[in-house]
Specification:
- The strands form six sheets. Strands 9-10-13-11-12 form a five-stranded mixed β-barrel.
- It contains ten helices and 23 strands.
- About 40% of the residues are buried.
- The protein folds into two domains: about 290 residues, Bira Bifunctional Protein, Domain 2 (BirA Bifunctional Protein, domain 2, 2-Layer Sandwich), CATH 3.30.930; about 90 residues, 3-Layer(aba) Sandwich (Rossmann fold), CATH 3.40.50.
- With about 425 residues, it is α+β, with helices and mostly antiparallel strands.
- The chain binds adenosine-5'-triphosphate (ATP) and magnesium ion.
- The site of adenosine-5'-triphosphate (ATP) has 15 residues, from strand 8, strand 13, strand 16 and helix 7.
Length: about 425
Amino acid sequence: MILSNFFIKTQKNISSEDISYNAKLLEKAGFIYKNSSGIYTFFPLGWIVIQNIIKIIREEMSNIGALEMMMPALVSKQIWQTSGRWDVEIGYEVKSKDKADADFVLGWTHEEVISEIFSHFINSYKDLPLAMYQIQTKFRNEPRAKSGLLRGKEFIMKDLYSFHSSEDDLFAYYNQVALAYQKIFKRCGLNSIYTLASGGAFTIANTHEFQVICGAGEDEILVCSSCGYAENKEISNLKPGDKCLKCDGIIKLEKSIEVGNIFPLGEKYARDFNLKFKDKNGNENYVIMGSYGIGVGRLMGTIVELFNDEHGIIWPKEIAPALVYLIDIDKKIEAKELYNYLQNKGISVIYDDRDLSIGEKLQDADLIGLPYRLILSPKNKDLIEVKLRKDNKIKQLSKEEVINLIVKNNENIK
Ligand code: ATP
Ligand code: MG
């Protein structure tokens, strides 16, 4: 990305309604624009981050045999009535202008839609198991949409649904998804805690959440400081200071953000939509389902909540919109050459060739928060100044050393 041909508008002042770091920093650094409370636009820089997260999700979903598809956002009244969720307050009703009553609710989850679809395509045990996911905008009437990407009225979710011939098969897959989710969050730079959470009328057992410890979180978990066993406070009988049930560790109470949630649904939606299969003996049974969500935008917000300092964002490598921020003190041909060289090696670079003062560029570099900042200076032609955003350490290195440092260390990140 060459900035004179790109769109980056960093801001000095932003609205004060949002108190969270992610809202403030992402807006200030030009990643997102707030259209209204809980509703955001992703600018190119922000959209690259979302795409980087999605790439990780797609790879890990593919590793557990899940297939990507895309369902509609407009979900008909009849479908919600079939499951008894037409009146759920979180939904936004949609009606055409010439009608008094709504015909649709904007999809805030898709168990109903996918169950109706596959009731036409799953007939036999040979059609099972099946796992399908989508990455889609969801709409929820969230009264507390004040924490940037953490809680939107409109937000990007990855929702996966799986179909099985037995509970054993469901739970085996459920555990595979749990491992895949932890890998996804790890690659995003986050340590996620697998947390026992409430079950409900729609599940056959407790659900599990993936919680990231963070002061900005709305959730509270009781977590063992030794083995990491955790329960959501809403359902837990544990108290801070208790001995862990699984080891000798001590339980602590932590604030956290739920980045993912998985649900063993059982037969609930299969019964609603008459989703049945014939087993090996020719008997008809209801399909056993699971559903599994990741908040893609919330994940991006969580990363910013955790990785920042007084100067701006500090992106983990695999998520960063680029690896290198390149500045030249004096516009010289060498900067363009280094840019081309690194780009050709698969290292993504933002080259700040804008007509701005060096001070402004340095400020933007810190605010935008790429892992490496390189400065070419005419005073010191043989050396390049390298700053690691992670610890703000500055070194003077030769071009070969810079290339070694960046190319060799990032071969797995393209
Ligand atoms: P919460 O308890 O935080 O309201 P939820 O349990 O209702 O979330 P799910 O239906 O489990 O959410 O959705 C799957 C994932 O989508 C959540 O784990 C979360 O990461 C994300 N998510 C849910 N609601 C929002 C929202 N309003 N804004 C952004 N992400 C969200
Ligand atoms: Mg949840």
